Amino acid sequence: MFRALLWAAILPSGILCKRILNLDKVESEPAGLLWKVFLLGCLSCVPASILEAAGESIIPEDLSPTAYSVAMFFVMVPLVEEGCKFFALNTVRNEPAFNYTFDGIVYGVMASLGFATVENILYVFVSGSFGVAFTRAILSVPLHCVCGVFMGYYYGLAHRNGKLGHEETKVLYLLLSLLVPMLIHGIYDVCLSLDDPIVTLGGLIFTLVMFVLAVQRTRISAAQDEAFWGGSEQ
Q1: pTM for this entry
Q2: Closest by Cα among 229, 4, 227, 218 to 128
Q3: In degrees rounded to 5, what are phi and psi of residue 62?
Q4: Residue closest to 99 by CA, chosen among 36, 32, 35, 29
Q5: 91 vs 87: CA distance, rounded Å
Q6: pLDDT tens-digit readout, 18-69
Q7: How far apart are CA 124 and CA 168, in angstroms?
Q8: In terms of Cα–Cα distance, which of 71, 34, 27 is closest to 52?
Q9: Residue 92: what are its φ and ψ, rounded to 5°?
């Protein structure tokens, strides 16, 4: 039972990681660096849980259920979790291996799925339910992966523009690499936290749409991968 639950918790992240790595056809990333970012994503769950608990304590108790959901799940949770994943991703900024735009997506997904793996293990083992494992495998874990794709996409563009000396554009893309995942994460969380079937359905449709867009973005970025010095290899 323990082993089966563990596999159910970690397999979704493993499958998604492999899919992203298989698309990186120009220049594979060093295994050690990939593991470093993934493990930092795992470890980022610790400060995230502490910060979320602290954030929850400062939300006024007299808020309506809807206002509380917006404050906690649209603002606090996405800010903390995507911020912690961004910190893990940002550790590769000076790595020589980070020399192609698509590398940003690779490392962004590693950081996000590291976080998602630990979170998934906790949820699955606390519930002891394969139903929870299945639901999170088709919703929560892909959502984290989607956030990692967009975070990494904009981070890769920021890093490329920085190498080319375009500092203002670099700052813009850095902001987008954090704000876009926060927005996606926030809409997903708040839709599923509100006790409204229509809103919940909207959140599920939103998740599906964002997953499709992330797949398209990943494939296009992989096909158009460019080195930071402006060259391109196919």
Answers
A1: 0.93
A2: 4
A3: -90, 10
A4: 29
A5: 7
A6: 999 999 988 889 999 999 999 999 999 999 999 999 999 999 988 999 999 9
A7: 43
A8: 71
A9: -95, 0
